[in-house]
Amino acid sequence: MQRKLVLALALAVAALHPARAAGLSPAEQRIVEEVRAWSGAAIGLLERSARINSGTMNLAGVRAVGDVFRKEFDQLGFRTVWLDMPHEMGRAGHLVAVREGRQGKRLLLLGHLDTVFEADSTTPLWEREGDYARGQGVSDMKGGNVIVVAALRALQRAGALDDTTITVMFTGDEEEAGNPKSVSRKDMVELAKLSDVALGFEGLVSIDGQPAATVGRRATAFFELEVKGRQGHSQGVFGNGGYGAVYEAARILDGFRQQVAEPGLTFNPGLILGGTDVSFDAANSKGAAFGKTNVIANTVTVKGDLRYLDYAQRDRAHARMREIVAQSLPGASASISFRDSYPPMAVTPGNLRLLEQYSQASSDAGLGTIGAVPPSARGAGDIQFVAPHVDSLDGLGASGGGAHSPNEGVELASIERAAIRTALLIYRLTR
Ligand SMILES: [Zn+2]
Known about the structure:
This protein is of the alpha+beta class. Helices cover 36% and strands 26% of the residues.
């Protein structure tokens, strides 16, 4: 009887305070209140950072956005440092903020300062329309950066940062990582090795109406196909003149399409140049071809990308593609080369456990459960460099749309929701 009464009372109280979620401890409720109290300021921080153009190649802009966030971490008692990249790399560098303690899991939080919108972009920096804002990088991923600040700030105000080990890294070149990546991502990999868990703040997406985070991302890599034929009069094609480089390239690419495809694997020839005189300018990703209709082409070059779920799938694809390349038509020959770029973030039990904890925190806060994005549905991201070393979860950022397009936008209320989920997850991971 007594228990029933208590339960009835609890339900009545919960009905009066819908914001107070039943699954949270008093300390956690305090954290949620702190996130809510700062929501207006969080939008202000988003606007300030969005109003600075920070296209990857606008190095001064990237550093200026770094300064905006650096001040926030300084205020929260983190030690901050700006890591410069070698001059010849042509990248702005990265912001790192660190605090050290002895309690719970050691966390690495990943954001990025740059956007795909370079200084000459005509996309507005910031345009607010009620509860929605459009602008350069507002969801990808200045919104995510703000969520990191908002969550850590709430934890600090609630006294829950004490004795925790948290490292924040906001890279300055996520959209076009500096080469070689063994240099531009060296510090990130080192920090990952000193951590137990990595959380990435790329946008939270919606799959069939349910919010979904990222437990796996496909690797990105490249292939280059070089095809040679015998130059000669067109009337000799199919005969003494051989098939030429263009037919050989067509045979190979169609063979790839018909014989190599499997679930989770894609390969896309993005550029092809063929004729008797071909030049390609890699830095600007463009080229020129000269040829005549009455001359058998002697050269084709193809540049493509290759995306795979794990190394076994990569190796299978390489082997089959090499086989197809080797079956040359008469009078033609070809060679293919491969180059890895982003390692795969494989779907591991550790990543799935993190998702479960994130989803639990969300539902305890009354914000619903979180599902998983299929790995093939997301492009490459920084989290992939750390995923081989630590349990990783990405997509904890803002909800919006149109990333990388002039319509990029963010649902402003999603900043608060994501900050609440993140703060609770960090709290639980660091107890
Ligand atoms: Zn991004």
